[in-house]
Amino acid sequence: MHEKFTPLTPELYAYVIAHNPPLDDVQRSLIDETAALGPISMMQVAVEQGAFLTLLTRLLGVRRAIEVGTFTGYSALSIARGLGDDGRLLCCDTSEQWTAIARRHWQRAGLSDRIELRLGPALDTLRALPREPVHELAFVDADKTSYRAYYEELLPRLRPNGLIVFDNVLWGGAVVDEKATDESTRAIRDLNDYVSRDARVDAVMIAVADGLLLARKR
Fold it and tell me: Which has the least CB within 10 A, 46, 64, 160, 171?
């Protein structure tokens, strides 16, 4: 197979960011406040991922979306900005501390009326939803060991042509490291293998940030 990819240097990455939509004051504030949390700030999605999520939401004409794993709210902000005026995003998370940061920035962005946050185990929240195909988009960026379970709960609730997007599917390169046998790495490998063979979806993996797996419901 011909390898055709361009390794990203810091300079080239800066070039990529410079050619994405410019950040506004709310986005910059959210990035800065999240960075102040320390190493855990790495849980925030990359800037180009946020722009990609907004674009996907608009392209699909999403009216109903679900997010599993909200953290400080950058990805939710990105999805909500792609929704129409009547669109709604349901966010699932367990942390009152981190999502308090999210709520403030959603309010500043004028998007609070489009976002519903439910605190508690995401699987409980998903299982409590009607098992009806009414959603067009789901974004999953939460505990990796539950990725497969989230997939099985989300897929029946997705409309045909709807999309599930999983983050961190390259897991820093650990997915191809034979020495990496921890539970999270094994769970991501399992998800990647399973979804790529699942006849219910069309799946594509792309090397954006730490890897995205997109599964379109047939």
Answer: 160
Beta bridge partners of 140: 68, 166
Q: How far apart are CA 100 and CA 81, in angstroms?
A: 19
The residue segments making up the domain with residue 118 are: 10-217
- Half-sphere exposure of residue 62, counting CA atoms within 13 Å on the CB side? 30
Q: Specify the pairing of strand 158-167 against strand 135-140.
A: parallel
C-beta of residue 140 within 8 angstroms of C-beta of residue 154: yes
User: How many angstroms separate the CA atoms of 76 and 190, rounded?
Assistant: 26
Each residue's pLDDT tens digit, 12-56: 999 999 999 999 999 999 999 999 999 999 999 999 999 999 999
1 lies in some domain: no
Domain annotation covers residue 95 = yes
What the block records as the tokens of 37 is: 């949390």
The first and second tokens of residue 185, run together, are: 């790495």
Please name which of 201, 148, 205 lies closest in space to residue 176, comparing C-alpha atoms. Answer: 205
pTM: 0.97
The amino acid at 83: L
**Which residues have a Cβ under 8 Å from the Cβ of 18 and sit 6 or more positions away?**
none
